[in-house]
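Annual report, structural modelling task.

Input specification for the farnesyl diphosphate complex:
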Amino acid sequence: MEKRNVPAHIGIIMDGNGRWAKQRNLPRSEGHKAGAQVFRRICDYADEIGIKNITFYAFSTENWRRPPEEVSALMDLFRDYLKEAQERQDENEEKGMHISFIGHREGMPEDIIELFDTTEKESRSANRINVNIAVNYGGRLEITDACRIIAQKVKNGEINPEDITEDDISANIYTAGQPDPDLIIRPSGEYRLSNFMIWQSAYSEFWFSDILWPDFTEKDLDRAIDDYNKRTRRFGGV
Ligand code: FPP
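The model returned the following structure:
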């Protein structure tokens, strides 16, 4: 493979699990289960190839509208992963994986919130790769949250409204301190962001594909990165 720049941050919308299951006459939950395995593999591969930040869209604020059995199957998958992360704490530390959950804790089952907190705490010192998992996440909600924090600062007299800058928003979103995603990947033939990282993606490159997420492989990630490398990013300049 020719020399390439690895994006500093990749965002992935894990889509197509339901259709993958349907093609096989399986319940939708089986698609999510297969998707969760791919999530694990891609996480490890991203670390292997030197990606420093990666964000996976796992559950949106809108996903609560799905049938209760599907929501509950997804929550079980999160539980399994979180318990496994606890068991594999040493391995994760060795891999240097710093895991964060971005999104609203409120509304999530209590035991999962606890597991989120412990997993984050235990992986805090790891610094090879930041893995952000967006759960109960909405991009508009993220910006609204940032506005609330800044509004409170205005109310406290810490900042004047006219002094608020874009950097203040960036400093108060969930991924504060991490670079914006250079590349956003969406498989499954859909061409939209679906409220994912809408602030951070202002200058992101997009890579779309018809592959359904459970069929996504390390080679597809390589392909997306190779395509990204062929693009010229101008950030509004010439
Ligand atoms: C969208 O596909 C996918 C989701 C709403 C869930 C994604 C979650 C996972 C892959 C599990 C992740 C697990 C961990 C541990 C982080 P869809 O169901 O909308 O697919 P469809 O459009 O084909 O119906």
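The mean pLDDT is 95.
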